[in-house]
Design goal:
This protein is α/β, with parallel strands linked by helices. The protein has 17 helices and 14 strands. The strands form three sheets. Strands 2-1-3-4-5-6 form a six-stranded parallel β-sheet, sandwiched between helices. The chain is globular and about 60 Å long. The relative contact order is 0.10. The structure holds cobalamin and iron/sulfur cluster. The site of cobalamin (B12) has 36 residues, from α1, α2, β3, β4 and α4.
């Protein structure tokens, strides 16, 4: 029996421009492969790495990963296979929140996490009794599965990070986030010894094949923990970090900023190899945060916490969203200054995007403010909703301004000077984001026209929806880019 597992590419500029060396391999597909019985021959095809699907090759079953922004392409691929009589299974966050849409494009859906149901699905398929829906009754215990099949990754051009889960779920409930609904508010941890064994396995088997991180002198295995929020429970984290020390690795993870306000933990994180913390600050306007139930973030503590993180030598990837109802146009420049003054090594900006299934989506939908339902645009870098506290055009101009202001040479130098001489990973990532910012305006112009023609931009929705038009103006441009 032969199974193809596919990660679709999208025409999103984010993914099209994403350097392969910053792209991480599809970890969910390596996990599904590990859950599949050994008598199956499996191929993982990642379209983002320019791996091409040969639809005419003989295959018995196809599984496609579906996040919202790749859903349209996933459906296209599914249609090609189904035309040839091949059964297609879809799974992933988008399928779980919009099963009725996904079912139109599939023979079977896996709703939620696959571990408890994938084995049964395979058995049913072998018996010619594939059901339409597979949904686990309870959330799975983590880690009761074999090591993900990294050996099936074809390209050696991915980011040299090995992805490992140490937990799933998040105790918070931010309105725009799919995680609590998909993975539960209960926070499930993997046993520390399992995590350590998995890291050791990767160290022993594949470490020699993977290159060093861009700009990195020392070559160590870099583990990216793909947890939504790695630190809610202190006991588990402390145990994990202590167990990482003898492994002599580097690692990165995502955490709430509040969990990082602890010097003792930060020292332990650094000692165990932490290089980078991804932190969803999202906004420096407390009202905007409260508006989406991001109560866990206290803006007046941000600078102090960032200083504590930098003090131990950990770099920060800081995420910021624009387009909350409480945002004003002066928020762009204020955020730029905040990012530069606080020396955030790798700031990443997003446009508020209503992912289906979230309360943010339901709220905007009930107000009739979602004007574009082409899921390909749901990459958090396109505007798909009508603004209330500024015009849509102001939001877009402000977003472009952030890229000019924050990724120019002077800003990069100010933000990275404390890391010492020589370009490192952060420098390369900033150069990429600088280039990305330059391409954004022509990309938007192109896709807007395309969506209007395809009528995915709703014809009756106004382009701007200004309730409380602010007076502040931006002064983009003339910032002298010239990196290279
Ligand atoms: C790590 C991560 C990333 C990594 C990517 C890692 C990778 N290689 O894919 C990075 C940082 C690049 C990333 C980026 C983005 N991400 Co992200 N990311 C995550 C995160 C935290 C973990 C994903 C993960 O690998 N989990 C571990 C694996 C094993 O679990 P899994 O993928 O969920 O797979 C399980 C099931 O879903 C299912 N399954 C999955 N695929 C398939 C396929 C088949 C065939 C089957 C049967 C089952 C199945 O079975 C698996 C095992 O149970 C999730 C949150 C989450 N918990 O899912 C968000 C999440 C997936 N991201 C999300 C988003 C929105 C993004 C962004 C678009 C924007 C943003 N705000 O970050 C960007 C994209 C940026 C870009 N460049 O385009 C959303 C997706 C929502 C949606 N409806 O699509 C999530 C759910 C987070 C959220 N805040 O809501 N992300
Ligand atoms: S803290 Fe992060 S993972 Fe948790 S609900 Fe909020 S955005 Fe989602």
């Amino acid at each position: 029996m032969r199974l193809n597992l596919i990660w679709p590419q999208t025409e999103s500029l984010v993914w099209k421009m994403q350097p392969k060396s910053l792209t991480t391999y599809p970890v969910s597909l390596t996990l599904l492969a590990a859950l599949t019985p050994p008598n199956w021959e499996i191929e993982i095809i990642d379209e983002r790495m320019e791996e091409v699907i040969n639809y005419d090759e003989k295959v018995d079953l196809v599984g496609i990963a579906v996040r919202t922004l790749i859903a349209p392409r996933a459906y296209e691929i599914a249609a090609e296979y189904r035309k040839r009589g091949v059964k297609v299974v879809l799974g992933g966050p988008h399928v779980s929140v919009l099963p009725s849409e996904a079912m139109r494009h599939a023979d079977a859906l896996v709703l939620g996490e696959a571990e408890p149901v994938w084995g049964q699905l395979i058995k049913d398929f072998e018996a010619g009794q594939l059901k339409k829906y597979y949904k686990a009754e309870t959330l799975p215990v983590l880690g009761n599965h074999p090591v993900p099949r990294y050996d099936l990754i074809k390209s050696h051009n991915y980011s040299p990070m090995i992805q490992i889960e140490s937990s799933r779920g998040c105790p918070h409930s931010c309105a725009y986030c799919s995680v609590p609904d998909l993975y539960g508010k209960s926070y499930r941890e993997r046993a520390v010894n399992q995590i350590v064994e998995e890291i050791q396995y990767f160290k022993e088997t594949i470490f020699d094949q993977i290159p060093a991180m861009p700009g990195q002198e020392k070559h160590k295995l870099h583990i990216a923990f793909v947890d939504d929020n790695i630190w809610p429970r202190r006991k588990h984290t402390r145990e994990l970090l202590e167990a990482l020390i003898p492994l002599d690795i580097e690692w990165s993870a995502q955490s709430s900023i509040i969990a990082l306000r602890d010097p003792e933990f930060l020292d332990l994180a650094k000692a165990s190899g932490c290089q980078l913390m991804g932190i969803g600050m999202e906004s420096i306007n407390q009202e905007s945060l409260l508006g989406v139930n991001k109560k866990v973030n206290q803006v007046d503590q941000f600078s102090e916490t960032l200083e504590m993180i930098h003090k131990v030598g950990i770099g920060v990837q800081g995420y910021f969203m624009f387009g909350f109802d409480q945002d004003k146009t002066d928020g762009f420049e204020k955020t730029a200054q905040f990012v530069i003054e606080n020396k955030i090594e790798m700031p990443v900006f997003f446009i508020c995007t209503p992912y289906p299934g979230t309360s943010f989506y339901n709220h905007l939908n009930s107000q009739g403010r979602i004007f574009n339902r082409n899921w390909t645009r749901y990459d958090a870098h396109n505007l798909v909703i009508n603004m209330v506290s500024m015009s849509n055009e102001e939001l877009k101009e402000g977003f472009l301004y952030m890229h000019e202001r924050v990724y120019n040479k002077e800003s990069i130098q100010k933000r990275l000077a404390h890391r010492g001489p020589g370009p490192d990973f952060f420098f390369f990532a900033n150069l990429h984001l600088n280039e990305f910012g330059k391409q954004l305006r022509p990309y938007w112009d192109g896709v807007e026209e395309k969506d209007r023609q395809a009528a995915s931009i709703l014809p009756d929705s106004p382009k701007t929806f200004t309730v409380n038009k602010p007076t502040a103006t931006l002064t983009p441009g003339s910032l002298g880019l010239g990196i290279g």
